[in-house]
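Many introductory courses stop at the sequence. We go one step further.
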Amino acid sequence: MGIEEFLHSITEARTIDLAPPYFVGMPHHPRHPPFPYGWSTAHGDSSVGGTSTAADSTALGGHVGTHVDALGHFSFNGKLFGGVDAIGCQSYLTGLSEHHVDMIDPIFRQVVQLDVAASEGLDVLSPTSSWMQTAWSELPSGPESRREQAMWSSSAPAGRSTGTRRNGSSMTCSARGINRGAACWLSARNVIAGGSDTIAFEFMPAPSMPVHVHLLQESRVHFLEVLNLEALAASRVSEFVFAAAPLRIRGGTGSPMRPGVLAPH
C-alpha cells in the first residue's frame, strides 16, 4: 500500500477518543494524588501592543486519569519482572532504573474488544475466565493467528461503566474487574497489553493485587486503566487500530495517556 492509499484509509476511518477529561475534583485512587490545576498568567496581567497571553500549570500523578502501568509499578517478594531487585533499582530522586515507563514504546496495534458484559447480557459484572472465553468465542473473525499482535481492550471487565463508588474527589478501593483466573487467561494468549474502564483493572478490594502481580511482575503485560469505553462498546466493532503513547517519564512507574482508536464506519 502506498502512502496516499494509507492516508486515505485513515481519513475514512471513524475516530473514537478513549480518554475522559482531566478537571479539578476528578475522581482518583486514594493512594494517588488529586489533579491540581491553576493559571500562572491570565489575559490582562500584561499587554504589549494590545497582545496578552494566558498560561496554566498542572501536576500529573503517574496513575491519575487514563494511564498505563509500567512493569516496575509492582513487585513480588522484592522482585520486579525478570527477577530484578526492586529496592536496588529505585530512588526517591530518580525513580526506577529498570522497567520504568520511559521504556514503553508508543503503541500502534490491532486491538480486539472483549465486551464481556454484552456477551452475558449484562451492564456490569465481575468476570471470570469463562466469561472472557465466551466474549472471545463471539468475535466474528476469530483472530487466532493475530493473538501476539493484539492489544486487548476489555470494554467490560466491569461492563460499560466504571462499577466504582465515588466519594468526593476520591475513588474508593472498590471496583469491578478481572480476577487472577481471567488475567491468566489473557496472558496465556500472549497479549502485549490490556485495558479497562475501571480505576484498578482488577476486581477490588484485593489487598495483594494478584492481577497486577501476575500481569506486570510475572507476565510482562502492561495495561491501561480509566479508559472511556462507552462509545467503543456502543459501536459494536470488535477489531480496530489502537494508538497511544506514554509520556517519556524516565524512572516513572506509570504515565498519563490519551489513547484513541480508528474503527470502520
